[in-house]
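= Paired protein data =
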Amino acid sequence: MGRQLRIEYPGAHYHVTSRGNERREVFKSAKDREKFISYLESAVVRYGAVIHAYCLMSTHYHVLIETPLGNLSQIMQHINGAYTIYFNTKRKRSGHLFQGRYKAILIEADEYAAELSRYIHLNPVKAAMVTRPEEYLWSSYRDYIGERESPGWLKTEFVLGYFGKNATESPYNYRNFVEDMLGEEYDSPLDKAVAATILGGAEFIRQMTETHIDCKQQDRDLAALRTLSNHPAMDTIIQAVKSITGDHESLAKKVSIHLCHIYSGAKLKEIGERFGIGESAVTQASRRFAQQLNGDSMLNKQIEQIKRTIGLSKV
């Protein structure tokens, strides 16, 4: 498998995660987690990182990070390198602590920062470590909802800005936003990332591809580059669906929403406006249709035929 593409530029936002080697624990104590958090802080001070959200699990961590200086590699070398030295020294061990390179997905912040922060903060709930996100000490959720004083290096204002204009309203609305998914099954927003590299709308992906990816990169990146350049437009998907489903308007709408959600790279707002539904309804409709596909061989054949028509059979 090829190495993940790296796109770095000033002002970029990323979801970053790194797992323990062989999925072993990288945080064994409160002291370990406190030490790692201190390296997040020093990355802010020394390398200009902006940390918007984080969660430290047992075998891995999640960070929502912005790089005003376009230096993600430098920041992550500091964080993972310093923590590895601390961990190995403390436990008299040597060798790699983390599994390969960290995974960084470039995100369109205005579209996905809030959703990703929710995903990050709900990780301990999903893993059944706690029943509510505020019960978990080692994430930034308590800072977001005002249950503890936020450290100066953690920047909650960006995400909270989507939920209100004052310090009382936004934490309350954000809490409701997160709690809406308690007890619900929902797909990770990271599943929508193209080539495991970029998460955003079609225009954002086009801009990033044209501006920051050199098509002369090594062969290991070519498959990812092809994927980045192959987003079909919503109109193309809708027309292909109609050509296969014929007069079945209800089915055509369901299929179109699902395929646009998965493959078009369009924003949820754009898809919703096209079909006259809300953003959350797009996700729900796509999920319901995916469930409908289970065990329906005829419907699956139709979907494969549609995908071949618009060149998605190998995406």
About this structure: DSSP finds 14 helices and five strands in the chain. Confidence is low (pLDDT under 50) at residues 216-222. The domain at 232-315 is CATH 1.10.1750.10 (Chromosomal Replication Initiator Protein Dnaa; Chain: A;). The two ends are 16 Å apart (CA to CA).
